[in-house]
Every structure is written in C-alpha cells, then in structure tokens.
C-alpha cells in the first residue's frame, strides 16, 4: 500500500504506512527469532524510510540465508534483484552487476536443490538480469531463461508458463535482433 501511495505522489502518507509496517515487522522478528521479513521490508521501503534498517537489508538477508536458507534465500534473491535494478537505473553498472551475480548464483543454488519449485524463479532472474543489461552475456542469459521455460512447458506440462515463455522469447528475440541476428530473431518471433 505504501508503494502505491508513493507512486501516486502521496509520499507523506506512504512514509507513515511504511514506518508502521517496519515497526510491525520488527515486532514479528523479535517474536519469531528471524529477521528475514524485516530485512526484506526494510529493503522494499528503503527509499521511503531511509536508515530504518538496523543493517543494510541485502547484507542482512545474506546473513539470514546461512541461518534459514529456505526462508531467506528467496527473499535475498528478490532484494538483490531490486538493488540491481536500483543501481542500474542510476548508471552504477558495476554495483548492479555485483548484486545481479549474487542473485543468479543463489537462484541457481535453489534450482539445483529443488528444480520443481525454483527453476521458474531462475528463469525469471536470468531474464530480468538480461533486461537490465548488467550480466556479462545478456543474450546468453535470456537464451537460458527461454530454454528453462520451454523445458518446463514441454517436459513438465506447465501450461501456466506458456505466457511467461512467450514474453521471455520476445525479449530474447529483441536482443537477437539488436545484435544483428535478424533471421534468428524473426524465427523466434514467429514461435513466440
């Protein structure tokens, strides 16, 4: 809700809601002994309530991942991807690339441990990284994302991912076209 209000230009209201949400997350963290949700919320509201976190949220999620991998790693991946987007938007490509590399590494780890649950997430992280342009090989990352989604649709009958596959394929083919590979791109556009 705070993010929506902020996008609507109602920043003062957004800051109030974000502050309240962070207070509640802090109470929850103390009650359950895990700071995963607090760190994720602090990262999400960082622009509304600067300095609200006890520690840098992505770093805190990284530490929590060692204590509670199942709960913290997915939250860490999301936070690292948001940070990568933030840095990319400011032109800080090196920092964006670093955040993205950590997110991809953790997404690969999850997908290797539990492919049925996390392969789709790996494809989305790879695709988002390619879209940000902060990966060493954006074309390779988008190709891998398309291949993962295609496998999930074809081999595991994941019809719910057909739209994701089509969109990722279009983004990949746009990259192909931008790299001068028009014939391959047109073939891919037809398939999508």
Short key terms for the protein model shown above:
192 residues, mainly alpha, 80% helix
Overview of the structural elements:
The chain is an all-alpha fold. It is built from ten helices and no strands. The longest helix has 22 residues. The two termini are 35 Å apart. The model has no long low-confidence stretch (mean pLDDT 80).
- Arithmetic mean of pLDDT: 80
Order of helices and strands: HHHHHHHHHH
| Poorly predicted regions | none
Structural category is mainly alpha
Summed up, the helix count is 10
Helix amount, in percent?
over 70%
Beta-strand content bin: under 5%
What's the shape? globular
Largest pleated sheet: none
Termini separation: 35 Å
